[in-house]
Write a structure and sequence with these properties.
The chain is an alpha/beta fold and 287 residues long. The chain has a domain at 25-156 and 237-277: Rossmann fold, CATH 3.40.50. The chain is built from six helices and eleven strands. It has helices spanning 2-13, 41-55, 101-112, 144-149, 258-261, 264-277, and strands at residues 28-36, 58-64, 88-94, 117-120, 151-152, 160-166, 180-185, 192-193, 198-207, 232-244, 247-252. The strands form two sheets. A nine-stranded mixed beta sheet has the order 2-1-3-4-11-10-9-6-7. Strands 5-8 form a two-stranded antiparallel sheet. A hairpin with a 2-residue loop joins strand 10 and strand 11. Helix 2 (41-55) packs across helix 6 (264-277).
């Protein structure tokens, strides 16, 4: 009996631990926009939806067209209220030939009102209403989409592995991530990075220099052949964040092939970027 009383007293002296699990937060509502040229969006849209919903308390709705042109007829065009009711918009479309200023202004309308944005891969090469190859002036009509992105890009290198190195390890998005090298990917160039934009990761890719054809023919019999071109390293920002009219914006140019989009490391990056853009990058929203 004495032993039983002693054990009972010991149990009562232990701190009381709540048995109930913490309540789940209200899921974020994300609108994923896909479609257009050059990518397997039919597969990638579902890889993104499944990957995001498995990693965080998020519900992903989709706007998708199977049109493969550079000006896909997306349902959001002409509707500046397309993001009503959503916490964040994920732009993953490829619409390089959509140059109508009014339409692009409508696409930007929700973000100008403060709705966060996530931009993946070819979104950086979409909605180029001006000359995208030369640096645009911030605030100008030609720069309207680049102002939102925080970075201007005009093209990409070959399909080859990209070595990704996170340069801002203290940032909430990248603090839990590690450097990695992708399989074949596309490294988008940086025409300019706008003031206020913070690069979180740089990508390095080996690229062969372009050979220019010489005019005319060299008739000298003893002419030596030109030395074979050697691959060179190209480096550009591949992950960055910025603020646009009070809205947080996260972007990454990585994500051309299905193998990358379905990679756990890529999905972890996009999930953390999305949660950060909504101010919800915490253990409550991470699964």
């Amino acid at each position: 009996m004495k032993l039983t009383r002693i054990l009972a007293l010991l149990v009562l002296s232990l701190p009381v631990v709540a048995a109930q699990a913490a309540p789940k937060p209200k899921p974020l509502r994300a609108l994923l926009i896909t479609g257009g040229c050059c990518h397997d969006y039919a597969t990638q849209k579902d890889l993104l939806k499944a990957g995001l919903e498995a990693r965080a308390h998020i519900i992903v709705d989709q706007v998708y067209t199977d049109d493969k042109s550079t000006n896909p007829p997306l349902a959001i065009y002409g509707n500046p209220d397309y993001a009503k009711g959503y916490d964040v918009v994920i732009h993953d479309e490829c619409a390089a030939a959509m140059k109508d200023v009014k339409t692009v202004a409508g696409i930007l309308a929700p973000h100008r009102k403060g709705i966060p944005g996530v931009n993946l891969h070819c979104a950086m090469h979409s909605y180029r209403v001006g000359d995208h190859r030369t640096p645009t002036k911030a605030g100008s009509e030609a720069s309207m989409w680049f102002d939102y992105l925080g970075l201007q890009s005009s093209g990409h290198g070959p399909k080859a592995p990209v070595e990704i190195k996170f340069s801002q390890q203290a940032h909430p998005i990248t603090s839990a991530l590690s450097d990695w090298t992708t399989m074949d990917e596309e490294l988008y160039n940086n025409v300019q990075i706008f003031p206020g934009t913070t690069s979180l990761a740089e990508g390095t890719q080996m690229q062969m220099p372009r050979q220019r054809k010489k005019k005319g023919k060299n008739k000298a019999k003893d002419a030596k052949p030109a030395p074979a071109p050697q691959p060179k390293k190209a480096t550009a920002s591949v992950v960055w964040v910025n603020e646009y009219h009070g809205a947080r914006v996260f972007s990454t140019t990585i994500g051309h092939f299905n193998e990358t989009v379905g990679d756990d490391r890529y999905l972890d990056l996009v999930t953390r970027g999305l949660l950060w853009s909504c101010g919800k990058l915490n253990q409550s929203y991470l699964k």
